[in-house]
Write a structure and sequence with these properties.
GO terms for molecular function: structural constituent of ribosome. One of its GO terms (cellular component) is cytosolic large ribosomal subunit. By secondary structure, this protein is mainly beta. Helix content is about 10%, strand content about 45%. It has a domain of about 80 residues: SH3 type barrels (Roll). Strands 4-3-2-1-5 form a 5-stranded antiparallel sheet, with no helix packed on it. The longest helix is centred in the first third of the chain and has 10 residues.
Length: about 110
């Protein structure tokens, strides 16, 4: 059991910023194409965070060409280069799944001052 705990501690990242649901984040993801590696930025609103330790994940939603796109990222994935908090949102819920149904200006989130 101690070995499993040590392994999970070794796998965890230490450069993760403090963010929560409602925040707009930019995630730089490593993409492998044809034998080369590049960074791709995915910027959107955090809908949810779940899990603890190496099992923790977060869901980010953005609108691309009038289509909603959601990605679930493992928080401690080696394919994530960096996470940057673009702006803090003011919300009262931990899970913002209701944003999936909203369109246009209705889906905006107030900024925390």
């Amino acid at each position: 059991m101690a070995q499993a705990h040590e392994f999970s501690v070794d796998q965890q990242r230490d450069n993760i910023p403090d963010f929560k649901s409602g925040d707009t984040v930019g995630v730089n993801v490593k993409v492998f194409e044809g034998g080369r590696e590049r960074l791709q930025r995915f910027e959107g609103v955090v809908l949810a965070k779940r899990g603890v330790g190496t099992n923790a994940t977060f869901t980010v939603r953005k609108i691309s060409a009038n289509v909603g796109v959601e990605r679930i990222f493992p928080l401690h994935s080696p394919n994530i280069d960096s996470i940057e908090v673009v702006r803090k949102g003011k919300v009262r819920r931990a899970k913002l799944y209701y944003l999936r149904e909203l369109r246009g200006k209705a889906s905006r989130i107030k900024e925390k001052r």
